[in-house]
Design a protein that fits this description.
three-stranded antiparallel sheet, mainly beta, 57 residues
């Protein structure tokens, strides 16, 4: 589900840190338990560089 279907940006709160689900609607981030009907976990990514980029497809 796209984030836009969850509401406008002012309806979302960003928490940075390490998190884990405690139950269906509870996530713990940096020791703080957060409850919500819908939780989005965005892990992020970084492009990887290296010699494998030159491999033929």
């Amino acid at each position: 589900m796209p984030v836009t279907s969850l509401g406008t940006p002012d309806m979302l709160t960003l928490y940075r840190g390490h998190g884990a689900f405690v139950s269906d609607h509870v996530v713990q981030v940096n020791g703080e338990q957060l409850t919500a009907p819908e939780i989005v976990i965005a892990t992020g990514s970084r492009p990887r560089t290296g010699p494998f980029l030159n491999l033929p497809i």
